[in-house]
Design brief:
By secondary structure, the protein is mostly helical. It has one domain. Keywords: Membrane, Transmembrane, Transmembrane helix.
Length: 68
């Protein structure tokens, strides 16, 4: 039986500050805003949560289409 020698690898990813800022604005701020608007209109927490997720994912897809 031979012993396999494993090499330890450390991988570093660098993320631009603008990317972090964009994710923060789209996911947290916009998602929260959409949640409260939909919750206010429908008076339902569940519908507000679903609307928030659908809204933020829709905005992300629109931004991806504009970049292409």
């Amino acid at each position: 039986m031979t012993a396999l020698k494993k090499e330890n690898q450390i991988i570093f990813y660098s993320i631009k500050g603008s990317t972090i800022k964009k994710v923060f604005i789209i996911d947290l701020v916009t998602g929260t805003g959409i949640y409260y608007i939909v919750k206010f209109i429908s008076a339902s927490v569940l519908i507000g949560m679903i609307g928030s997720v659908v809204g933020t994912e829709g905005i992300k897809k629109v931004f991806k289409c504009q970049l292409q």
